[in-house]
Amino acid sequence: MVQMSVIGFSSNHCIFALKGETNKYMNTPRRYNPVLVALHWFTVMLMLGAGFLSEDEGGSSPINIHMMLGGLLLVILVARLIVRFTTQRPAWATTGNALLNKLGRLVHVGLYGMAFFILGLGGLIAYKRNLFAVVLGTGFANDEGWTLTRIHHLGWILALLLIFAHVGTALYHQFILKDNLFERMWFGK
Fold first, then answer.
1. How confident is the model over 112-156, as pLDDT tens digits?
2. Which residue(s) pair with 16 in the sheet?
3. How wide is the angle at C-alpha 158 spanned by C-alphas 176 and 147, nearest 5°?
């Protein structure tokens, strides 16, 4: 395990030194890249919008809006992953508890995984039920894919649980640990 010590601060970065190594430094930003911040909040809006505008059992919700938001969410998530892995980001926030830190990472991975799972199923459902033609006004929906639709809905419920865990953890960091976590995922210097 690598241990680090803070050796200095600037307005945008914390500088860490690897314990036992005086000549190696890491320059770690204190905030996420502004593009990643924007993509994070777009993801939140699109995921909640698509989820709450989903077609219910009676079919009264606007499926075309749900599908467009889902398609846009897919584009935003792919862009978000590209930006996440090509820009510097802050070190993982720690709770001081190894188990909670591991759970936090699992929730992050779970959010990405569940989002892609839901989007993949949504595309498959749209294909099986002929919903692309419905949205384009060139065809009618059929009754195939109802089992997939139920799994898609279950994925949304699981994603909501992960979102609640993510938000709860952020609130715990901000108000209990008082580590100013919200600052990392917002715009500013």
1. 999 999 999 999 999 999 988 888 889 888 888 889 999 999 999
2. 6, 26
3. 175
Element (H, E) at 68: helix 63-86
**Secondary structure (3-state) at 6:** strand
Alpha-carbon distance values, 16 to 34, 59, 182 (Å): 22, 55, 21
Q: What is the pTM of this model?
A: 0.81
Q: Give me the count of residues in the chain.
A: 189
- DSSP letter for each residue of 76-129: HHHHHHHHHHHS--PPPP--S-HHHHHHHHHHHHHHHHHHHHHHHHHHHHHHHT
Beta bridge partners of 28: 14
Q: Which domains does the chain have, with CATH numbers?
A: 1-30 (no CATH), 31-185 (1.20.950)
